[in-house]
Amino acid sequence: MEVRPLTGDEWSLKRDLRLAALRDSPHAFASTYAREVKRSEADWRTWPAGGAFFAAFRDAVPLGIAGSWVAASAPGTTHLISMWVVPSCRGRGIAVLLADAVTGWARERGHDTVELEIACGNTAAMHAYLRCGFTPTSREPFTSGGTVLVRSV
């Protein structure tokens, strides 16, 4: 298994994985397929601004994706965003590898914490993130009914 950052030139792979995630799990993300499919090539190349996307591969086949992003209002915190694993590959530790890649990215930048939000009712994601070492917090999520989790870097 290889996990590595995606380059701007791999924008179409990032797009394809993100759109597959939105088709597979439309209620798990803070966006929609209809919104994301309209992004331009330039948008995909640079998203997320100030962050990075990582993909997990086995034999050059992409099996999952996760992003990192830093909000200007919280410069010491990396946000793990848009994590998704191909359904037939779930339960094989790919989420842990992707979370570790985002945590490594945060560490390289001197950040203290990796934070994420889980949509209400997404128990599979909750279990995956708990296995990755994230813990729930009392912070109010941006998404109604969601849960905020953190992992120390």
Layout of secondary structure:
Elements: E1 2-5, H1 11-24, H2 33-36, H3 41-46, E2 52-58, E3 61-69, E4 77-85, H4 94-108, E5 113-118, H5 123-131, E6 135-136, E7 147-152
Parallel strand pairs: 4-5
Antiparallel strand pairs: 1-2, 2-3, 3-4, 5-7, 6-7
Short descriptors:
153 residues; alpha+beta; 7-stranded mixed sheet; 28% strand; globular
Alpha plus pi helix count: 5
- Let me know the largest β-sheet: 7 strands, mixed
**What strand line-up does the widest sheet have?**
1-2-3-4-5-7-6
Structural class: alpha+beta
What radius of gyration results from the CA coordinates? 14 Å
Oligomeric state of this protein: single chain
Strand content: 25-35%
Termini gap:
23 Å
Task: Provide mean pLDDT, rounded.
Answer: 95
Quick gist of this model?
The protein has 153 residues and is of the alpha+beta class. It is built from 5 helices and 7 strands.
Question: What does this protein structure show overall?
Answer:
The chain has about 150 residues and is an alpha+beta fold. Helices cover about 30% and strands about 30% of the residues. It has 5 helices and 7 strands. The chain has a 7-stranded mixed beta sheet with strand order 1-2-3-4-5-7-6, sandwiched between helices. A hairpin with a 2-residue loop joins strand 2 and strand 3. The mean pLDDT is about 95.
